[in-house]
User: Fold this.
Amino acid sequence: MRNTTKTVTTVLAAGALALGVAACGAPGSSDDKNGALVVAASPVPHAEILNYVKDHLADKAGLKLEVKEFTDYNTPNLSTQDGSVGANYFQNQPFLDDFNKKKGTDIVPVVTVHLEPLGLYSHKVKKADQLKKGATVAVPSDTVNEARALKLLDAHGVIKLKSGVGNEATPKDITANPKGLKFKELEAAQLPRSLDDVDAAVVNGNYAIEAHLKPAKDAIILESPKNNPYANFLAVKRGNEDDPRVKKLAKLLTSPQVKKFIKDQYQGSVLPSF
Assistant:
């Protein structure tokens, strides 16, 4: 994460690390295979999907499940690494690769569940080509999601990025910017609230839905699901992939019932990836 991340996120992360020291072997931790599986998740849609599993499928499968909600992108992985929780569900592979590299964590994916298409939203224009010269566009401040946002704009001809740029692209990699757009980096969770202050914002799907935006309807540009590498998955600390509770949850998360729930609940704003 870049240094624009809120102080409260750092405090939460530090608190999670402190909790983890005392959590080893505690009920719900990754070391207690007989207790409930505690899963860290973003509120929407991840926790909603997990709570559907908990309320409708888990008992029959013999799975005790506890869902802990987090609104930042640091704490879930740190808590999974230190054993405070047994798994997490909130991220995609490029984000995880970047996080493991920067934080020295050892988190691995278990099963892919869904895609939240990234979108460009605006309270001021109906189409991207209506953005005025010098307009300000807010983008996520974390490395992977900023690159993803810029790639979205590149794919729709708003800007042009340097050829071959990867998941660390920044505005410095823009080679053509016909409208002279200015980019404002904000923590991902703040982006929906920024829409009254900027001309447009690229918002992660989970935060868009949480802010009562409907990506399939409200986004003026929306990411395509075809060959998309940003699908979200259940993840654990390496070595816990064979935990019987994790295996049960992975099976339930990719069940026909969950696929139907995702389709019915989100109406195209969240897409099953299995």
